[in-house]
Amino acid sequence: MASGDRDYILLDHGSGGRATHRLIREIFYSAFEASGEGFLDSAILGTHSGPLAFTTDSFVVDPIFFPGGDLGSLAVHGTVNDLAMVGARPLYLACGFILEEGLPLADLKRIVLSMARAAEEIGVKIVCGDTKVVPKGKGDRIFITTTGMGEILADPYPHPRRIEPGDEILVSGPIGEHGLAVLSARESLPLKGLRSDSAPVWPLVEALLKALGPAVHALRDPTRGGLATTVNELAQEAKVEIELLESEIPVRAEVRGGCEILGLDPLYLACEGRFVAMVARGKGEEALQVLKELPGGHEARLIGQVRNQTDRPLVILKTAIGGERILPVLTGEPLPRIC
């Protein structure tokens, strides 16, 4: 093996032999043993008295490093946030890696260490996983699949079927930052001040559930398709008409300016560290104060309400100039490979 070859992923790393064992021991095991019990093909999990939530997601973001995050932290945040959306405290993660021949080992190590830090920060254990290597040109550097398990602490747990007329709608922070930050990094656009919002939302969700209990009717994270598509999905599942107030939806000036230049709508850009909450009538201000007192929630806003039950679910946006327009689901994919 040439000395330079030791700096990159080789097909030999997927053979199951000495190179595979060295890769797992030196990169994966050394990073993940602190957050779990090593990095095994199977894990033995503890017993839990309550119901468990289970989810899986794959991450193929391009570029793999972007302002405010990277593929590794995103793979952890995306999965623990999905667990949080049903009121589940994240407990365990399993992860699978598809590595392309030629990937610099330094990049792989950086991503794995980022995953380990993100898991430690939220208190989730990475307990098992797998790696596969594909020939150069048959992948795109690295893909990660994470599967998560969490303990549901909410009773009843948040679900769109619990949405009712009069429910008040909050968003936990400014929207559109992840999607635009990734696009800007991918295309080397000269847009300043952009950072992904990628972050775990469980601390905010846990506080909301403790304060409001069953008054938290539904939660959803606005990832692909952004806020507009997410709220439409909730309306469709609950069979309700929803009203959003454009003037109350938080959008940072950097995101708004970038969208104006590129002809994009921040309402359809992905977030990776925000969530939408539907809470019972009269509970919106209390929920807002809970979020505003916590790190990551100080820019939360009340952005709308559920109008009524209907056989024709839709989302109506009350514009900043006083008009109304129907806010449709995203059509097409203007920003592929953002998560």
UniProtKB/TrEMBL annotation:
Domain PurM-like C-terminal: 164-309
Gene3D superfamilies, per database record: PurM-like C-terminal domain (3.90.650.10), PurM-like, N-terminal domain (3.30.1330.10)
Residue span(s) of domain PurM-like N-terminal: 43-152
Name of a matching Pfam family: AIRS_C
Annotated InterPro entries: HypE, PurM-like_C_dom, PurM-like_C_sf, PurM-like_N, PurM-like_N_sf
One of the protein's GO biological processes: protein maturation
Family, per entry: Belongs to the HypE family.
Protein name (record): [NiFe] hydrogenase metallocenter assembly protein HypE
Species of origin: Thermosulfurimonas dismutans
